[in-house]
Amino acid sequence: MTEKQTNKGPEAHYFSALNSGRFIIQKCDGCAQHIFYPRTVCPHCTGTTLNWVQPSGLGSIYSNTTIHRRPTDGGDYNVCLVDLDEGVRLMGNVKGIPPSDVEIGMRVKIQIDIHEGQGKAVFQLLEEK
Amino acid sequence: MNMKDLRGAAAIVGVGTAGCGEAHGYTEIEILAQAAQAAVTDAGLTFDDIDGLCTANLNIAMWPLNVIEYLGIRPSFIEGTNIGGSAFVAHILPAMLALASGACNAVLVCYGSTQRTSEFGRKERTVARNLLDPAPYESIYKPFNPPTSYALIAARHMHEFGTTRRHLAEVAVSARAWANLNPEAFSRGPLSIDDVLNARMIFDPFTVHDCCLVTDGAGAFVMTRSDTAKDRPHKPAYVLGQASAAWHRTVSGMEDLTVTPALQSGAAAFEMAGMKPSDIDMLQLYDAFTINPILFLEDLGFCQKGEGGPFVENGATGPGGRLPVNTNGGGLSCVHPNMYGAFAVIEAVRQLRGDCNERQIENAQTALVNGNGGIAASSQSTLILGTTETL
Hints:
The complex is a heterodimer of chains A (129) and B (391). Chain A is mostly beta strands. Chain A has two domains: 2-53, no CATH class; 58-125, CATH 2.40.50. Chain A is 8% helix and 41% strand. Chain A has a six-stranded mixed sheet with strand order 7-6-5-9-10-8. Chain A is globular, with a radius of gyration of 16 Å. The model of chain A has no long low-confidence stretch (mean pLDDT 94). With 391 residues, chain B is of the alpha/beta class. Chain B is globular. The model of chain B has no long low-confidence stretch (mean pLDDT 97). Classes of the chains: A mainly beta (129), B alpha/beta (391). The A-B interface holds A 11, 15, 36-37, 62-68, 77, 79-81, 89-93, 100, 104-105, 120 and B 136-138, 140-144, 148, 151-153, 155-156, 159, 200-205, 251-252, 257.
């Protein structure tokens, strides 16, 4: 599934889609590689025809850390890097399990949390059959 | 001209520091000027002789102008590139080119920060930087940078190669052992592997002992062409190799979290110097976090990729170990005023001069400095220095 670039820069287009609950990334017409974060020029081949696509949303934890905070400051939280199956990497948080249970290599699926109109891509563990 | 023609063409002939640790009541430009004055005097020169300037500041974009006005100099060569803490190592190649071309005759490289004691604190600076230099695809996840980025790097290295928290602790303990031989070091006193392992975890897998200090400090050094370097009061430290590399900005943009741009900068610096790791007597590796020296030992070719952890075991890089690393105590235990690169250079020069008393490496002829910059090992700059005997 592809869609056309709207009349805004790729950053604005990305966040506009995210705020409406859709996670989309770019795919270069020239070299067929996926790109994240969104850009005006392909960092792989210098191409400028970059189409928006909806990825599978599936990926694996590439690295992972827990930031330790006092419970009164909100407690510990997870920050991870996820490699999507399309071959791009992004930062995220894993939701639904304690930060200390997150491990490199875990399979995850993206979900979009919308809070006060702001979309955020987060991850939950994928129950593999 | 090729890079090998620049081997030994310039030398560091003066060094100085000021305000290291806590510089209560002083501003960053004030301690910078003190360090600059010390370095210029150490070189047997005055500010009138300085016609080249390299400097950068974490928060101020046109910082060379601040320094030029404060010192009252009128340089014809001005280099203000800021690629993070490696900048003051990376300034050396453009300085050499300017000296070799005759664009200038004496270059002052200088830096100062009062991040520890200044009233405009880290919190305000972080907020300001996030506004002026946003990372919108990361900041929503609340990484606490730079520690979060280096924690992710360390976690991946541990996952791929079996590197342990004990290996990381070895780096912290070696740094402290060196600091205990250096009266100028900020953190002195006993520190054991167990002290590190049992400390409170703050950025998994890092405890406070895995993270560099937050201190004030200013550092400066002076470079001239080699033909005039021998007329200066102290033994020159000749630049045998120098190269920089940068591959990314954020940790999300780092292709392989276990490989830094030091792979590229190190190979180029060794090529220019016509040397190999076994020719190096001591290393000064920017240790922003305990994982950094492990990564650099691998990327610079002192061991295979993945073997940096075992390499540092049993105090191998500490006093009396087989390869001295960070003989001043490094950013972990000596000094770390936001950007540390200049201090690593200064320690290497002091060692090659034989000025280091208790921590002196006997008969040191060569030193390798690796500067690290950015929030995710983003830029690297490798410097190889040698005494007259190595020319």
